[in-house]
Design goal:
- The protein is α+β, with helices and mostly antiparallel strands.
- Among the domains are: 61 residues, no CATH class; 53 residues, no CATH class; 124 residues, Roll (Nuclear Transport Factor 2, Chain: A).
- The protein contains 13 helices and 10 strands.
- Strands 4, 6, 7, 8, 9 and 10 form a 6-stranded mixed β-sheet that branches. Strands 1-2 form a two-stranded antiparallel ribbon. The protein has a two-stranded antiparallel ribbon with strand order 3-5.
- β9 and β10 form a beta hairpin.
- α4 runs antiparallel to α5 and α7 packs antiparallel against α8.
- It is rod-shaped and about 165 Å long.
- The termini are far apart.
- About 7% of the residues have low confidence.
């Protein structure tokens, strides 16, 4: 007869406790000494008293309960041992992964911080400004380049202060522009910008042309200048900008009249001046309507009272602007420079005047007055 093995469920002989495979496994892996095959028939025929007494020469058989206990314990130990090893391996792997993850995170944080510091430092070096170095120092008080940033910042402050001291007595427009470009965030910026605005305005109205006034207005509109004189520049630009179509022949005639009129006025040649004045003049500088003869007599009388005084009028004919009116008159605006002096020569030169002249169809002056240099008329 055969029965089933209690460990694997395979068939085994009735006399054996386990099948051959399980018995071999137990002996090899757990070192348990298995009893020989049991003779259940002989054991059953022996008296109970005889079963309890063993011969000194015979090997005492292991009882079924004891064998089962040892095998169960061994099998349980094996399973626990293997399960423990598996848990240990899994725990070790999890621990290793966690450690690698933590190391990777810390390393990435370190690398990221170093990269960010390098970016900010490169930006500070590229800008080379006080605020750029301050930004790096505030962000990285223990940074690799802190000492270098501090030294560069102090050097910039020293150069900036020295440059500002030089500008206090300078009238060089380029030096002011260079300062603003080199120190865009300087505490002196507003002072330098206002001074530059004044210098460029003086330069514009000294030239006293539509082009130079236009250049000043463009600088203001682009944000380069604060524009303290913008409206005055605009007014003068409109006076001098040639919007009327220009005829070369007509322009040459107008320029010839203007040049001759101011030449006679400067030379105090009243006979020549009479050729350019209309018989009736509606405005002559600060005088109202009067005849040509009375105007010339007034000029001669003024000269007699101040014989040493002399004024030379120098018109800028290249910047002359004119337009025609419906009644065929011509209105002219021309930049002027005046030289004041006496018999020994000019003592003072003033630019910034604009002469406003109106001529009739015959080219005679019927009106003349001036716009004075900026500030002089106030």
């Amino acid at each position: 007869m055969s029965s089933l093995c209690p460990l694997c469920g395979k068939n085994k002989s009735e006399e054996a406790l386990f099948c051959d495979e399980c018995e071999k496994k137990i002996r090899n892996e757990y070192e348990v000494k298995m009893p020989g095959r049991l003779n259940f028939a002989e054991n059953a025929s022996q008296p109970v008293a005889e079963k309890g007494v063993a011969s000194s020469e015979e090997e005492v058989p292991i009882l079924d309960n004891e064998v089962d206990l040892n095998i169960d314990n061994a099998d349980s130990f094996s399973r626990k041992h293997k399960h423990g090893k598996r848990k240990g391996v899994v725990f070790g792997c999890v621990l290793l992964v966690c450690m690698l993850g933590a190391f990777s995170f810390v390393y990435k944080q370190h690398v990221t911080r170093q990269t960010q510091e390098r970016i900010i430092w490169d930006a500070a070096m590229g800008a080379n400004t006080v605020n750029g170095y301050l930004a790096y120092m505030n962000e990285y008080p223990n940074g690799k380049h802190f000492a270098e940033a501090e030294a560069k910042m102090k050097a910039l402050k020293d150069r900036e202060a020295a440059a500002w001291e030089n500008l206090k007595t300078s009238e060089n427009i380029t030096e002011f522009q260079d300062f603003l470009q080199q120190y865009p965030e300087s505490p002196y910026r507003s002072l330098v910008s206002n001074r530059l605005d004044s210098l460029m305005w003086i330069d514009a109205y000294t030239a006293n042309t539509a082009q130079r006034y236009s250049e000043y207005m463009v600088a203001v509109e682009s944000g380069e200048l604060p524009g303290n004189y913008y409206h005055e520049a605009q007014k003068r630009f409109e006076m001098l900008f040639q919007s009327y179509p220009v005829s070369t022949e007509e322009s040459d005639k107008i320029k010839a009249v203007i040049e001759g009129f101011y030449g006679a006025l400067s030379d105090e040649d009243y006979n020549k001046l009479a050729e350019y004045l209309a018989p009736k003049v509606y405005r002559f500088f600060n005088k109202g309507t009067d005849s040509r003869d009375n105007i010339l007599k007034g000029l001669q009388l003024a000269k007699a009272k101040n014989p040493d005084s002399a004024v030379r009028f120098i018109p800028n004919l290249d910047a002359l602007q004119y337009e025609k009116t419906p009644d065929d008159r011509v209105r002219v605006n021309v930049p002027l420079v005046k030289q004041y002096g006496g018999e020994e020569g000019p003592t003072r030169t003033v630019s910034g005047y604009i002469g406003h002249i109106e001529m009739d169809g015959g080219g005679h002056v019927v009106s003349i007055y001036e716009t004075k240099p900026y500030g002089a008329e106030r």
